[in-house]
Amino acid sequence: MSPSRRAMRRPPSPLPWITALLTALACALPALPLPAEPPPSGADLGKVLADRAAAVVTVQVVVQIKMGGEMGSQMGEKQEFQTEASCVVIDPNGLVLCSNTLLGGYMSLIQRVMGGGKMEMTATPTQLKVLFADEAKPLEAKLLVRDTDLDLAWLQVKAPEGKKFAYVDLTRSATPKVGDPFVAIRRLDKFFDRTATVYEGRIGGTVKKPRTLYVPTATAESSLGLPALAPTGEVLGILVLQFPDEAGDLDAGPFGRLETSARVQDLIRGFILPAADVVKATKRAAESGKSGK
């Protein structure tokens, strides 16, 4: 049996990978207190769920991993596995927005943190299907564009002619202040029937570098790629992961591992990319998709 055939199996979802990575890098540090649970937002969570859940979908994807160098010779040059991610429909014609991290982008993150340039590895999402709450079978989708810098990926659902979908209008946006509440909706694992659930949080601050980002008071990695909503329904932005482009940024050597671990704890967390910036990025993505770039 070839290495690639042996490797066809379904591993845990991307979120445990990220958690495991964070745990491994931080193991040398003293225990840090967990962030307190956010106070109630005052939102009518039942209404938020009823209004928005239909636009939150489950994307099934086969991620193809290609490896080179020593690791490739040990594990096989090509591997594939299946995974799922909660994503959001942002257009009635079936344009879907996801976190690039959850569509295999976390493999690049692992490469940069653990091996830098010494690990030759690429991850490509293939065989995309989208599960809608009101559809008996998943619909096929095409990957249009990935923006690794913003941690966004756009998919187009191959829908029957004339079919319209529930969606979240990113142009109905608001700018939050520190202390403002927000909510996000995601779908659980298929073991729990992919049930739509609500996450509550508050805005803890705003950063300007590397770009404007709103900082949640508590970890929000479980909602990557999904909209952060004001209790009144406006979109504050999309929850994304932000990470340095250069591996050297975190290549501290054997005597810098404690510092590296501390930095990764601060980096691997969800930030909110403002809705206006997501709208601009979506327009760029559409232009890139048409041009074939």
Question: Which properties best describe this structure?
Answer:
293 residues, disordered N terminus
Walk me through the structure.
By secondary structure, the chain is of the alpha+beta class. The chain has seven helices and twelve strands.
Blueprint of the fold:
Blueprint: H1 3-6, H2 14-26, H3 45-52, E1 56-67, H4 69-75, E2 78-91, E3 95-98, H5 106-115, E4 121-131, E5 139-147, E6 152-157, E7 181-187, E8 196-207, E9 213-216, E10 227-229, E11 235-241, H6 257-267, E12 270-274, H7 275-291
Antiparallel strand pairs: 1-2, 1-4, 2-3, 3-6, 4-5, 5-6, 7-8, 8-9, 10-11, 11-12
Helix pairs in contact: 2-6
Give the gist of this structure:
By secondary structure, this protein is of the alpha+beta class. The protein is built from seven helices and twelve strands.
Largest sheet composition: 6 strands, antiparallel, barrel
Compute the average pLDDT.
79
Order of helices and strands: HHHEHEEHEEEEEEEEHEH
Q: In DSSP terms, counting alpha (H) and pi (I) runs of 4 or more, how many helices? A: 7
Terminal CA distance reads 38 Å
Strand % is 25-35%
What is the total tally of β strands?
A: 12
Please mark out the parts with pLDDT under 50 across 5 or more consecutive residues, or reply none.
Answer: 1-12, 18-36
